[in-house]
Structure formats: C-alpha cells, structure tokens
Amino acid sequence: MSEKQTVQVDQTKLGWSLFALRVGIFIVIGIWSLDKFFNPGHVAAVFSKFYQIDQLGEMTAYLMGTVQIILALLFVTGCKKNITYLLILIIHLASTLVSFPIYMSPFANSNLLFFAAWPMLGACIALYLLRDYDKCFCVK
User: Fold this and answer.
1) Nearest to residue 85, comparing CAs of 17, 137, 18, 33?
2) Does 1 fall in a domain?
3) What is the DSSP letter of 112?
4) What is the Cα–Cα distance from 60 to 75, expressed in whole angstroms?
5) I want to staple 56 with a disulfide (CB 3.0 to 4.6 A). Which of 15, 44, 85, 133 is the partner?
6) Whole-model pTM?
C-alpha cells in the first residue's frame, strides 16, 4: 500500500472520545490537586522521595494545589487547549518519569499502581495531538 488512503472519521464519535479522555485525565489531576489541601504531608513526602525537595511547607502545598486546580478546570473545559493540554502533559510526563525506579520492581509494595501512569500518559499525548478535534463541551 504505497498510496496514502483517506479514512473517514465520525466527528461525533471522535468528539465524545476526546471528551472522555479529557474528563478521565481531569479526574486524576483533580484528585492530585485536592490531595495538596487534604493531605499536605503526603505531598511533602512525595516531593522529598521523588524530587529530592525536602521541607515542603503546607502553604507551598496549598499554593501548588490552587494553581493545579485552576489548570485542571481550564483543561476540563477545553480552554486554551494549546497551553493547558501541553501543561497537563508535561506535569504528568514528569511525574511518570520521576517514578522510573519503581517500575524496575513492579511487584514490591504497591508499585503496580504506578503502572497506571503509562496509559494515562498515552491519553495525555493523544489528547494533545488531537486537541484541534476536541470540540465537545469546550470553552473558546
């Protein structure tokens, strides 16, 4: 098949599929954001273990949570897709890659849960690449 084939895509199905990806990603990012308010000690422990940033204060966790919630709300509404989708992708990529040593021992502790980051990373990449087709429930 040397000739390029044209594939017809059902725009309604594509729109709903991208919306489903956006909502699914938002749920995860939203929970991460809320965790910064409900359990700032957990956030401090994560930053200490994975990012080697010690002494993360409560106010810093609250500020990070606030910024992340604003970003997540812009993201889920499809606002400023070029920026918000890319920022969500970068944030998730960083959190996935910084956890890389855990992937080397998947059956220790609760490490299996970390593997859920990879399909979500794929969803973030797909949504970013297809952002121009994501029109379902988007704010302009």
Assistant:
1) 18
2) no
3) G
4) 22
5) 44
6) 0.89
Domain annotation covers residue 4: no
Per-residue pLDDT tens digits for 61-77 = 999 999 999 999 999 99
Residue 140 domain-assigned (yes or no): no
16, two tokens = 């709903």
How far apart CA 58 and CA 119 sit, in angstroms, is 31
**Sole residue written with tokens 């401090």:** 44
Residue 97 is assigned to a structural domain of this protein: yes
Predicted confidence (pLDDT) per residue in 11-58, tens digit: 999 999 999 999 999 999 999 999 999 999 999 999 998 888 888 899
Give yes or no for a contact between 88 and 21, defined as CB atoms under 8 angstroms apart.
no
26 closest CA partner among 127, 140, 130 = 127
Coil, helix or strand at residue 90: helix
Cα–Cα nearest to 76, from 113, 32, 41, 28 = 28
Could you tell me how many residues make up the chain? 140
Query: CA angle 97-99-102, nearest 5°?
Result: 130
